[in-house]
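About this split. The held-out portion is used to measure sequence recovery: a designer receives only the structure tokens and must propose an amino acid at every position. Recovery is the fraction of positions where the proposal matches the reference. Here is one held-out target exactly as it appears in the evaluation file.
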């Protein structure tokens, strides 16, 4: 099989219908991430973990208490296979070829239309690491190394940058990528010191000065 090449993309999952096949720990992790992203989730599985059951009782997810059937794909945008059954994975991947749904099979890139990176989240900042399906363990190891660099102050920095960007737009202004890079330099010490307002003011002043230069 030819080497697969993936195009990295972040998708707005708000209200997007997603199917998860499986009811174990792997399915639970998939569902948790999908709910955090605002997706509409249907889980097909005879049994569920306690947490999945709680989500189903609360109406956060729709539960179909049986094994997978091809009609389950109807209307779904994304499908996540989280079951150990190789036959189910193969069948579901085959069923998805004639439908618009994109399929991801856990630890089985050969039967997947897309793969999931190992993601590091710091507020609105997301750093994703992938190996093209070659070694999810390596992607996780690299992500864990990055955790010591991308500390929690990056979440504050990302929030401040978003606020300043919105304010600039409201004023009818904009800045280039190079101007942003220069303006963001040396702001983290202020954030680490808890001087968030000073960091925001300095960022805005630098970008305004760049506009007027």
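Reference sequence for scoring:
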């Amino acid at each position: 099989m030819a080497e697969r090449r993936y195009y990295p993309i972040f998708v707005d999952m708000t209200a997007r219908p997603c199917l998860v096949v499986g009811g174990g720990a792997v399915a639970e992790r998939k569902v948790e991430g999908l709910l955090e992203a605002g997706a509409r989730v249907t889980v097909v599985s005879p049994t569920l973990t306690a947490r999945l059951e709680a989500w189903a009782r609360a109406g956060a997810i729709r539960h179909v208490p049986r094994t997978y059937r091809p009609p389950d794909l109807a209307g779904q945008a994304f499908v996540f296979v989280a079951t150990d059954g190789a036959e189910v994975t193969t069948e579901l991947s085959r069923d998805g070829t004639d439908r618009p749904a994109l399929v991801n099979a856990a630890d089985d890139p050969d039967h997947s239309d897309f793969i999931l990176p190992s993601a590091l989240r710091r507020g609105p900042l997301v750093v994703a690491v992938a190996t093209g399906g070659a070694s999810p363990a390596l992607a996780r190891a690299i992500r864990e190394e990055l955790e010591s660099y991308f500390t929690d102050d990056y979440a504050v920095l990302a929030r401040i940058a978003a606020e300043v960007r919105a304010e600039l737009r409201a004023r009818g202004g904009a800045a280039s990528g190079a101007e942003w890079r220069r303006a963001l330099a040396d702001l983290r010490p202020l954030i680490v010191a808890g001087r968030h307002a000073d960091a925001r003011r300095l960022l805005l002043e630098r970008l305004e000065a760049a506009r007027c230069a």
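Annotator remark: The radius of gyration is 21 Å.
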